[in-house]
Amino acid sequence: MRMYDIIMRKRNGSVLSEEEIRFMIHEYVAGNIPDYQMSAMLMAIYFRGMSDEETSILTDAMAHSGEMVDLSAINGITIDKHSTGGVGDKTSLILAPIVAACGGKVAKMSGRGLGHTGGTIDKMEAIPGLQTSLPQDKFIEIVNKIGFSVIGQSGNLAPADKKLYALRDVTATVDSIPLIAASIMSKKLAAGNDCILLDVKTGSGAFMKTLEGSIELAKKMVAIGENAGKKTVALITDMDIPLGHAIGNALEIIEVVTTLHNQGPADLTKVSLELAANMLHIGGFGTPLECMTKATKAIEDGSAYLKLIEMVEAQGGDSSVIKDISRFAKAPFEKIVTAPKTGYINHMNTEQCGIASLVLGAGRETKESTIDYSAGIILKNKVGDYVKAGDELAVLYTSKEETLKEAEKILLYDTVIDETPVKQNPLIFARVDKEKVDKFI
Ligand code: URA
């Protein structure tokens, strides 16, 4: 079999065989197919697409390119959740303790920030001492004891995706539905959970900018998960506005804690509860209504907050910062960004909010960059709010004073304030399972 022939077949619009797809992934990971040939293949897939069957085979081949995690030592059904990436999206650290408090098991492997989007592992490392890399037996022990643990992906989880993702990033082939679906689901299948809830973000801060594209991606991923024998459901949620008020690692952990104290922003609380209730439902904990009641109670009675403390301590973190959020290190420099005119905030570019936070030091400019955990943004007003000229729009935090001006410019770029009141998007646009798509707009 020759890679040249496989590229030509895909270029001409043929459906690739299982043998061809498995050969291509195996030989690429082994270093026998050069990047220039794989780049040509990625571009052919970008334009020609892949059938559901091709995408499922590609996902399986990528998942099996490395370690397949065995979670069978966990007592109970394990329920995973994956977000396609957003700005201010700290839901994992809210919903995992909720699900654990309701009796579910969450053995979660999370990623770091990618581009303008934040990552759960970076946020967790804002908690002093917290270990995000644990041996497998310790990870399983914590899940069995507490109900949840969150660690970074092991180096050998779907190595084909690591190589392919880096190549897609530099060949303009990231935003291809079959390639995104295979990338995400290969890691989910390798992570070994029984059930998967996907949070597919849509809007200006998401990789998928349109609702139609997000639904198509969700349908593909749900089909892949179900074909692999995992109960899989997707919610399509809004990422046209950052979630909550905080963007940046320590600032987001503080917002996680206030939300678990039932004093968080309404949008973040609602999305976290919907995700948690859906996780409990697919894990067999009751009807959707019963699961929502359980999840809400876990916030109201403080049991989810106590689970967060238990996890932080079990993973070696200093829980005193969670018990007293004023103990988080403060950024030495801050700047208030004010509204340039009076009116309704009609638009904020969420991707630009993520980039402004990155410039302040909350994300990585290069692979080698170190993170400033205290850096980030608190949004004082968001899309839909009425502001007077000079009112606070946001406060910027950083350890590098020289970044404040640029971050302010980025944040205000594309922020539109005018006289027209704004019709708010629903927070949850749709729910996709193997049988149907329920739209809520
Ligand atoms: N997240 C991933 O893991 N892969 C993609 O292709 C896009 C988002």
Low-confidence stretches: none
Q: How is the largest sheet built, in terms of strand order? A: 1-4-5-13-14
Q: What is the CATH third-level topology name of the largest domain? A: Pyrimidine Nucleoside Phosphorylase, Chain A, domain 2
Main structural class:
alpha+beta
CATH architecture designation of the largest domain: 3-Layer(aba) Sandwich
CATH class category name of the largest domain: Alpha Beta
- CATH superfamily descriptor of the largest domain: Nucleoside phosphorylase/phosphoribosyltransferase catalytic domain
What is the β-strand count? 14
Tertiary shape: globular
What bound compounds does this protein have?
Answer: uracil
What percent of residues are in strands?
15-25%
Rg value: 22 Å
Overall tally of structural domains: 3
Q: How many helical stretches?
A: 17
Largest sheet: 5 strands, mixed
* Rounded average pLDDT: 95
Q: Helix content range of the residues, please? A: 40-55%
Alpha-carbon distance between the termini? 49 Å
Q: In a few lines, what is going on in this structure?
A:
The chain has 441 residues and is an alpha+beta fold. It is 44% helix and 15% strand.
